[in-house]
Amino acid sequence: MRRLCLTFVVGAAIVLTGSCGQFGHLAEVHYRISVGIDTPEGLRAGAGVWSYELRRGNIDQGFTSRFQGEAIPIDLPNGKTIFALLDLRGPDNLPVLDIQGRLPELVTARRFFPSGSFPPPAGISRPEIIKYIQKHVHNRVKLNCNPEPYPGECPLLVSFRNPADPNSVYALDPDNLEAEFGPGYALRGMFLQVTDAHPTHQLEGRLPWEASVGGKHLDGSDVNRPTTLASHLTILSFKKWQR
After folding, report:
1. Is the pLDDT of residue 59 over 90?
2. What is the pLDDT of residue 5?
3. Using an 8 Å Cβ cutoff, are 85 and 67 in contact?
4. Helices 126-136 and 103-112 sit at what angle, rounded to 10 degrees?
């Protein structure tokens, strides 16, 4: 297979980089997720940049990857904070844990491939998809929060009954924020736009339970037997930084 050495820029909003000097590096995409929430006191918004690097795998693995980023906080006038997680929203408002970072590919496949399939049709490689994103995705794209067809495109939205208690985490229905927060609260939209900005750090001091949770689930368990949202989530749903 021919090694890719690519650096593409379209307009001011999109970048993919590759380097023959980095073993296994094929391509990297940085993308901004923006979230707008209508409130009785006007629009409240948050945004964050995430990155996804595609690497050449070994003989048994076509590709490996590196995903980096942090959940996006949106502070509301009622004193609550919504977090748009790194995990996507799945059926029953549960997180989809295993496709972090592949959102640009998911969106592109659904918008531009005739079958709307994901993974894409046979014969179209993942590096080709990323090159397709570079060539055709110029503007901000509104994400579809409907988790059907599985998975949805939107990050899972969560909040905490008690910000100091990780076990108090709960999921929000993006189509009915009024049910939790009252009249005047609604999701205006979630958007994706590829960018040349670096991944953002913005959760310092916002997760007071982080040190106590460590590598366990938010409910304190260390086995994967989910019964509540807190037993699905770990700190990696909020922060993921890899060397």
Report:
1. no
2. 29
3. no
4. 70
3-state secondary structure the chain: CCCCCCEEEECCCEEEECCCCCCCEEEEEEEEEEEEEEECCEEEEEEEEEEEEEEECCCCCCEEEEEEEECEEEECCCCCEEEEEEEEECHHHCEECCCCCCHHHHHHHHHHCCCCCCCCCCCCCHHHHHHHHHHHCCCCEECCCCCCCCCCCCEEEEEECCCCCHHHEEECCCCCCHHHHCCCCEEEEEEEEEECCCCCCCCCCCCCCHHHHCCCCCCCCCCCCCCCHHHCCCHHHCEECCC
Q: Assess contact for 73 and 99: CB atoms under 8 A.
A: no
The model's pTM is 0.84
Strand-pair partners of 74: 82
Sign of CA pseudo-dihedral 21, 22, 25, 27: negative
Phi, psi of 138 (to 5 degrees): -105, -35
Radius of gyration for the chain, computed over Cα atoms and rounded to the nearest angstrom: 18
Range with the poorest average pLDDT among 37-41, 102-106, 180-184, 205-209: 102-106
Give the C-alpha separation, 142 to 159, whole Å: 22
**Least-confidence region, from 116-130, 143-157, 173-187:** 116-130
Q: Compute φ and ψ for 107, nearest 5 degrees.
A: -65, -45
Q: What is the dihedral of CA 211, 215, 220, 223, to 10 degrees?
A: 180
